[in-house]
Here is the input.
Amino acid sequence: MSLLCSIDGQITPVEEATVSVTDEGLVRGDGAFELLKLYDGRAFALKDHLDRLGVTCNGVFLDWDRALFEREIDALLEQNERPDAYLRLILTRPGRRIALLEAPMSFEHDMALSSVRYRPTIVLTGLKTLSYSANMTATRIAQQAGAKEALLVEPDGTILEAPTSSIFWVTADGTIRTPELESGILASITRDRVLQVVPVEEGRYKLEDVFEAAEVFLASTIREIQGVKELDGLSYESPGPVTQRVAGLLSERIQAELNGAA
Here is the structure.
């Protein structure tokens, strides 16, 4: 089954889809995006993702037609024959609308992180733009250190997030913690769902707080919950009992929302 793509409402197989080499999304990374997961062909939290897409567009002064884009997304999903896939939504200046289906990946509870010093760009804080070079470079720095992914940390040691996911950790007494949004991290939709299914303490924490954790896990749209087995050479139980419980509760929450019960 071929993966499909919609560009300004024109649906084609992904391998046949094209955009102009002068598109500002390509030339300048000037645009916004979202990534969703399909469950049996249904997009989870589509409204939330479109709401956040709107926040990003407002933040970078990018005009878009939400109602039109929603109709194009619906048309794409109606033709989609891949029940489990990712849906990437992209808006570029001056308003190209791209909805792209991608093959899913698998995530094991074997994540190894390496802390990478990072300072957010203030004018883009909380926005999900196409300007992801800093995030991807941080990942490559971590991979050079033998890890799989980076953990972004302010120069003063304040924990932020991973390049494409939120971080949570469990203290010795079982408390779950995560950085607060005010620290400059993305308002992750999966992070929000985790906060809805279990008590979580939010705050400004240092890297040493995570070093002392009993369990560490990441949360994102495509991975849901992924246990971390190593951070800067320190080992953790992965998945630990709290990580497994959160993963189960999140999965139940997702299914409830898809079934209209939440």
User: Anything to note?
Assistant: The chain has two domains: 4-102, 111-257. The chain has seven helices and 14 strands. The mean pLDDT is 95.
